[in-house]
Every structure is written in C-alpha cells, then in structure tokens.
Amino acid sequence: MESARLANRQSIRKKGWDYAAAAGYFVTINTHRSRALFGTIVNGRAVLSEAGRVAEAEWRKSAVVRRGIELDEFVIMPNHVHGIVWLQGLDASSPSRGEFGRPVAGALGTLVGAYKAAVSRELRRKGLIHPARPIWHRNYWDVIVWDGKALAGIRKYIRENPQHYAAMANMRELRWIGNRKLFEGPKMGFMASRGVDGVPCGLPVKPGEAIVSGFLSPMEQAVFRAGLAQQWPLIWVKPWGQEDRASSESVRHALEEGRLLIVSPFADGMDGPNMRRAAWCNQYVLKTCDRLAVGHLNPGGLLACVLSEVDPDKEILYL
Description:
Elements: H1 2-10, E1 23-30, E2 39-42, E3 45-48, H2 50-65, E4 69-76, E5 80-87, H3 108-125, E6 141-145, H4 148-169, E7 175-178, H5 181-184, E8 187-191, E9 210-213, H6 218-230, E10 234-237, H7 249-256, E11 260-264, H8 274-288, E12 291-294, H9 302-307, E13 316-318
Parallel strand pairs: 8-9, 8-12, 9-10, 10-11, 12-13
Antiparallel strand pairs: 1-5, 1-6, 2-3, 4-5, 7-11
Helix pairs in contact: 2-3
C-alpha cells in the first residue's frame, strides 16, 4: 500500500523528463507528518522558530555551496518549504545520469536531498531536535516552471502562502445546508484545472462515497451536474453567501433527498480575489477528503501549486 501511494504521488512529474535539465522547478519539501517545526503564522506572516531560521539559512546557502543552482522566490512555512530553483543543466562531460540509482550532480533530487541533509545535521548539532526523530517526509513535490505566466503565478502563490496557511488554520465551525451525514462517510475529493470540460472517463467513485469539491472549474462543474443527474452523493465546499447554483431546482431536489451537502468552513471576514478563494476551497478539499482524483492538470497552474499542500501520503489518482 505504501509503495502504491508513493507511485500515485509521483505521477504529477513529467514522464521522461530529465530532472537534471536546465529549467525552473517549483519545489515543496514537507516536514515529517506535517509537524510545525519551523515556526508559526501571525497576521498572515511567517514567524520563524530557531529551527525555521536554520531551514532558511541552509536554503539561501544552496546556491553558494552547490554548483549550477540559482534561487528565486521562496518561503519557509511552519511545516514545509516552498521555493523556485533554477538549474543550469549538466554539460556533456558529466557522468551518466542516474547510473545504478546514484545521486546525479546538478539534478533536482540531489539538490533536495542535500538540502534536507544539511538542515538535519544543523538542527541536530544545535540540539533543536532529538537525534532519532525524523525531520522530513521521505519525498518532495515538484512542478516544472513552463513559461512566464506559470512563473508569475507560482511566485504569487509562494508570496501568499502564509495567508493561505492562516486561512486554513483559522477555519470556523462548518455552516451547512443538506445531509450532514455525508461528511461523516467516505469522501473522494475531485479537482480539475480550467481548460477542459466534460466528465472524465472512469471517474472512480466507490459505492457510498461522496464526491467533495469546490466544483469551480468547467470539468468540476460537469461532474457536479452529472452527480445531480445520476444521484451521486455530493459535498460542495464554497464561501458562504455565494448562492449562484444553490438556488437551482436540481440542487433543491438533491438537498431534500439527502444527496447533497453544501458546506462552508470560512469566517465571514475571510475574503479575497476569486483565485484566492478557489485556493482556499481546494485546500479544504485536500484536508478533508480520504483520497483525491484529479481530472485535468495544467502544468504550473493554480491547481498544481495547491496540490503541493496535500498530505504526501494521501492517495491521488490522475485520470
């Protein structure tokens, strides 16, 4: 089961891509079991602990002590590190890449491994963590920075990450309309980037399992319509007071028949641009679902960034 989950998690990476190639990479490195080791968030800003200051100092040193690396936007969060790394790429004289599974000089995985090791050594040297206690999750997330538009979006996501984190940490009691019991049962999260419509083939809904989503993108909305028509259990996460589709006849019937739950975990004072609210809804779906299905993923888009916040051990199916 553990190896299957790891395989699902890695499928976000581009098949056949050389991760020693010259390119930009958005990297997320999680602490072990999402432990808030590096500090806290106060008024939407990261306040680092001594361990967090070590993590920041070692990240800054990466471009100094390791060849072929340039750093871009980054942030040290309580339980993870976000950063954009530019690799210059290996020259033709470099040894064979990945031979016998050895680390490859200049490759992304080698950089991440070296950074984790440096932080771990320094934290243990300073006595900030027990020598036998794990510090990092065994793996990491990465998103290739494909173009200038993706770069701008990822930089913005990194800068706003403390605000997203604060929003999730300060959620209020659920307000809800519909069948609350759906929230207590098994839940499959569904997410899809914009750009593609229609229900994906082979949507893996199990009997009795509710689909939980913000139902924001065209494909997510198509799944919502199909769920209403085919009487699937649905949980719709949304900011309170945005009624839009909630007043439709099919939605009213689903509510009356116990097939739909509309929930909002967000305080009234929490507001922001549409993209920020979309990120909050998606992050809440990630937090509450038992497993996740992704119908369409735009490389470098908002959803790719949001997925870097998922529990690294959660099952993810890419359709």
